Amino acid sequence: MSEFSPNQPIILSDQQPGGRWPLQQFTTPERSLPTYFEVPSKRNVITIKSANGDIVTPRDEGSRGPTLSERPETTESASENDKPNDRVSTEWPAQTNRGHPATKLNIYAPIHVPDWLLAINESVVAYVPCTPLRHFDADKYAAAFGADIHVQPRDKWPLPLGLLIPDRQTPVKPEQYQDRFIALLREELAALDQRLFYYSLYNHPIVMRDPHQLLFEIHVPGLRENSPRVDLGDIVLVRPILLNDHLVVFSQNKMWREHMQEKGQCHPAFEGREYRAVVWGLNRAKEAVLLRIENGGKVPQTANLKFILQVPKTMPLLSAVQSIHAALGSSDTTTLRSMLFPHRSDACMQTKLSAASFDIEWRDDSLNFEQQKAVAAVVADRYGTVPYLISGPPGTGKTKTIVEMALQLVARNESAVHPHLLICAPSDAAADTLALRLSLWLDRNQLFRLNSWTRSFAEVPDKLILYSYTDSHSLFSLPPFGQLMSYSIVVTTCRDANILIEARLTNKDLAELAFSTMSAVSPSTVEGLTTPLLHWTALLLDEAAQATEPESLIPLSVVLPLARLPKCQLVCPQFVLAGDEFQLGPRLESHAQRTGLEISLFQRLFNLPFYADHPLSMANGLKPLTRKLLPIPRPAFTNLTRNYRSHSAILSVPSSLFYFDNLIPEFTPLSAITTSWPGWRKPNWPVLFIQNSGPDEVDDILAGDGTGVGSLYNNDEIGIVLTRVQTLLNQIPDLQPEEVMIMSPFRAQVTRIRTALRKEGLAAVNVGPLEAFQGLESRIVMLCTTRTRRGPEGDEVKFVRIDQERGLGVIDEPKRFNMAMTRAMEGFMVVGDASTLVCTGDSSWRNFIAFCLRNGLVEGELGEIEEQIKAWDVKEGRLERALRRKELGVEENGGGVVGLRRFVENGEEEGEMMLPEG
Q: Where are the beta strands (DSSP E) in 284-352?
């Protein structure tokens, strides 16, 4: 049992055996997770389920809940005295003509693992540590510029215990901030720990690569797709296997289970040591991981491997929540409170209309009016001490706006302090995009790309290597203190901003350093000090809707200023967030509960009355600002509505469903041939729904990742995709294979589509899971929904609900649906079964299928759906009506095709907008 008392505060540490901390308090509604050291019951049983998910073999599950060390499928059988409990059905299925039960394997059953391999993971063990990979030493760095002497040590708080998962409908409040987010993070960490457990590898081959450095190579299925996520320096638990004769092991395992396990004796097929192997290198493309195992040079042929929670990756989130909560409860909370919980009193009032032009020398003169307005508002800084929010659907130029904003802020000279910007994004890919665009304007003395020491060189774009810093061990690191302070812009990820916190480079720490040093050298100077002590003058957060609120708190902790000194001018750093709250949010493991962690700080802020109830908000129809509305709180937000990515027909449904019917198409096709391709049902309507009633099937669970998740595929769908891709490439001369994107929510389908295309020489076609395409675009996009099976009569939604419990599929997933629809530029196709897609009453799919039926964009027979549509509550948006008028040749305003409203730059409404040609 665990050595930790459940009544003691938990302070997370990577020094505990096995690299884990106690998880007694990490609970979910369905499962309580034990500590790492808990030994489960000796007996394991087989649970067989029918195709509809019912348990058909009665077994006594006992009163004890499942533990991390158990697997539901083993080779052991229950005794004859076992009695079924109330949770197990005792009814046997109907008999087939051969007298055998008409059963099928449960499609979500975990991979079968022999009991003797499970027993090895339950055996008593001695832990063998490993020399950690050299990494960035934050304490040493801070000491180099005197922070260890002149800056107070960082506060550390014990984590509160016994927190209940909050109701997601309850608003976030300052006084409950820590309790709420610590509870949510614990739930997420528990779910992640459970997921990592199912990525365990059993009897897995290990190959010696370097006997002098004790380096071994393993193959990790799913590494390419971060399933599991593995980084340099991570700990992997390795239990070498000594005996592989299955017949001998089986008999010895039975004896161990019955007589030796309870006595604490080691399993006979196991040497009794668990090695804390360190990830020394990795190749994601080849799914290869290099481990350093300090085992004296012994070369095990196979081993059990377990992936575990990595404390250094999770501690920054918990620490950020605690430090922000402490700051909210301090005596001077105005700045932070206005950033997280803005009130009307925090705004600046606007009493007159703004000028229609801006006195700014633009770096990028292609910005539209809304983009320029956002930049000008932030540069002028007259909207109050609140976050400035930039909301925009895909293709509206949010990142472009952030880049221009950063360049203008750096060039601003009126400020009392020299500008230094921290720019963050949730992912390395998004941060790289920002840095690459900024590198077109800034040299290596102005721009710094801060990478985590765990990032490999192969993952960094070549150009950005020049904008990064590496230490003597060829690991990414921080440059010397003086050099870092000279950069105008630092770009990093939200989580990697914690490097600045650990190195004592926050605004608070730097101000305290300056104040303490000056007090020691010249006390009189401090008494007369009026210059604000602020290094980081602004935080710009791109793709903010994809970050959890605790992730956003990490960079926010960097820029928070020191409490105002008596005579110092208070200068608050600006906080700008850009994102799309209607696209995919943070990627989480605790998807089934959906208790609130999936709501980003960006989305929560936009839902506050301060933004949502503003007269000029998108929800209020983007009303033009007129003199009648004055005075009014100066809007601390901009809605980007001009879409430069997609054809009007592709935008129609997302615009009406998610963006209050306000999107304005500005896209011009690369080729008129694409939108007039004969494969579309109607010219210049490049949207198509292809009905597929072919059955979905179950992939071989033994070839899976051990989770049973993502094992669905559909052969008929694969055939449709292959034929359609070949036709597109043959009939559209300028269309390249890499300009076609195919996505499916099921991993097995992704793999099989890739294989089918490669056999036809089409490996360049971009195929992947939905989440992999967030932020990307392609000329042609095909969405394969794959799931066609429905449950029995009266319970048609059975299998769809199972998908949803596991975070799979695109039904009742509006953000996933919206993300999939908004990747396409010139053509969008959906392959699926209409009856399955609408079986739950999903509003998004009803609207899309109704759109296709109304406009003749369906291939195949939909049967009863064509009658059911009459009773659906569906929308017909402005873009759809404009497309019909264009199709009919309706002209107004001197020959322009009537489309959407637009507003001129001075805020007065003016006529209609023409749809672009093509």
A: 288-292, 302-307, 349-350
Q: Is 138-313 assigned to CATH 2.40.30.230?
A: yes
CA distance 783 to 55: 34
> pLDDT value at position 242?
87
Assigned CATH for 682-860: 3.40.50.300
The Cα 256–Cα 244 span in angstroms is 16
Count Cβ atoms below 10 Å from residue 296 Cβ, excluding itself. 7
What's the pLDDT at 616? 85
Return the pLDDT at 564. Answer: 60
Query: What superfamily would CATH give domain 314-349+363-582+595-640?
Result: P-loop containing nucleotide triphosphate hydrolases (3.40.50.300)
What confidence score (pLDDT) does residue 741 get? 98
Do residues 166 and 595 make contact, with C-beta atoms less than 8 angstroms apart? yes
At residue 84, the pLDDT reads 36
The tokens of 644 are what?
């430069």
Residue ranges of the chain with per-residue pLDDT less than 70:
1-111, 157-169, 244, 331-332, 414-416, 526-528, 530-532, 563-570, 591-595, 621-623, 700-711, 891-918
Task: Parse the chain into domains and list their residue ranges.
Answer: 138-313, 314-349+363-582+595-640, 682-860
Contacts of 630 (CB under 8 A, 6+ apart): 350, 351, 352, 353
- The count of residues in the chain is 918
Q: Give the model's pLDDT for residue 233.
A: 92
Cis peptide before 769 (omega within 30 of 0): no
What one-letter code names the amino acid at 42? K
Q: 34: which residues sit within 8 A by CB, 6+ positions away? A: 2, 23, 24, 67, 68, 69
- Residue 338 CA to residue 340 CA, distance in Å, equals 6
Q: What is the dihedral of CA 639, 640, 643, 648, to 10 degrees?
A: 20
Specify whether the CB–CB gap between 290 and 279 falls below 8 A.
Answer: yes
Q: What's the whole-model pTM score?
A: 0.83
Residues 6+ apart with CB under 8 A from 153: none
Residue pair 395/645 in contact (Cβ under 8 Å)? The answer is yes
Q: What is the pLDDT of residue 523?
A: 77
C-alpha 257/C-alpha 235 separation (Å) is: 29
pLDDT at 521: 81
- How far does the chain reach from its first CA to its final CA, in angstroms? 69
**Nearest residue to 552 (alpha-carbon basis) of 334, 316, 310:** 316
481: nearest Cα among 492, 472, 469? 469
CA 693/CA 837 separation, integer angstroms: 11
Q: What pLDDT, on a 0 to 100 scale, did the predictor assign at position 32?
A: 32
Question: What's residue 403's pLDDT?
Answer: 98
